[in-house]
Amino acid sequence: MKKLKRYHYERYALLCELSYPNDFDPLAFGFSEAGNVLIEDQKGHVAARVLWGPKKEVVVVIRGSKDLRDWLINMQCWLRRVNERHRTYRVHWGYSKMLDEPCKDTPLLSIYERLRLTLLPLINEGRKVSITGHSSGGAIGVLMAQRLHRQHSKCVKRVVTFGQPAVGDYRFKRQYPLASKTFRVCCDVDLVTFLPPFPGIYHQVGRTHWLHDERIFEDVSDFRRLLISLSFWLTRPVRYHFMDKYIRRKNYFDKH
Questions:
Q1: CATH number, domain at 84?
Q2: Which residues constitute the domain of residue 196?
Q3: What is the pLDDT of residues 167-224, one digit of tens each?
Q4: CA contacts within 13 A on the Cβ side of 119
Q5: pTM of structure
């Protein structure tokens, strides 16, 4: 079973953080200056970046929620029915709508179509695509990866999301083709990772990597995460009494 390496985690996490400001230096991350294509939504905001360099990997970074409009889209969490090759499933209406919005520079093309046309010559060169995103960017990235795999099978190398809400129902989870290549990173009690707040209706996909109490828990269900978090907070005053907490802070004396 595939694992998420520390190198990939740190690299994608930094790329997601840098997806919010408009200024970005691709050379600092090993990408070429020419290998930096911006995809802007109809409002002129950067929706995604397509990055590549001398290596065979292409990285697509999807921007997360940045303004009021983005958060209103997050709230449009009724399910949209999708019929695909005799398969039926339902996905988050707002995130699906984001992929289908027109681009600023090419209004006849949707954001997804613009991304696909940018990726197509790179895929034909034999490059593999990695997709990453934070918050709603991760959710949109999952939907994008699913569409891309459907049209160009085996082109997606991995999907890494941070603080990602769920995107589809149980049928979407069952039919999602990239479960073994999708890594969903959650941090402590990040409430967004439990959204939309409809247990049993929305289901997460891929493998969960939960960063909690200075440890990494793999493939933990959302219900178990919630129970562990609650028990941790209830017992936190007692935990600080243990000697290991004092030993971990021994470096403080060298710094002060």
A1: 3.40.50.1820
A2: 6-228
A3: 999 999 999 999 999 999 998 888 888 889 888 899 999 999 988 877 788 888 888 8
A4: 30
A5: 0.87
